[in-house]
Amino acid sequence: MTAAKHHLLSIAALLLACAGCGPNPEAKFEWRETTLDLIPEARKAVQKVMTDHFGTPHALVAWDRLPVNYGGVRGTVVAAPEGIALSAGQLAIEWQGDAAAIGPDDPILWLSGPAAGEDPTDAVAQYDAAQGLLTLARWKGEAPPIGAQLAVGFGDKMRLGRVAYMKNCTHCHGVAGDGNGPTARYLNPKPRDYRLGIFKFTSTNSMSKATRDDLRRIIREGIPGTYMPSFLLMKDDETEAIIEYVRWLAMRGEMEKRLDDELIGDYSSKAIDAAIARARSAGEKPPSRNQLLKQANDDLKQFLAEDFPGTVNDTADMIAEAWTQAEDPANLVVPAVPRVADTPESRQRGRLIYLSDKAKCYTCHGPHGRGDGAAAEDFWPKPGSTEKYEQRGLHDFWGNPLPPRDLTKGQYRGGRRPIDLFRRIHAGIKGTPMPAFGGTVLKDEDIWDVVNYVMSIPFESSPTTPSKPEMVAKTAQVGRSTP
Amino acid sequence: MQFQQFHKMPVLWGTIVLTAMTTGLAGCGGGASATPTVRYLPSRPESATAETNAADTPATPEAAAEASGTGSLKGRVVYQGDFQPLPPLYGKGAAPKDTEVCGAEAIPDESVIVNNGGLANVFIYLPKAPKGAVSPTPAEPVIFDQKYCVFKPHALIVRAGQTIKILNSDGALHNTHTYPTRNPTFNQGVKPNDQVGVDLVYGRPESQPFMVGCDVHPWMKAYHLPLDHPFGAVSAADGTFEIKDLPAGKHSFKVWHEKGGELQKALTVTIKPGETTDIEIPVAAAQLSRREGPALPLVQLTFAQ
Question: Do B136-228 and B65-127+231-290 fall under one CATH topology?
Answer without folding.
Answer: yes
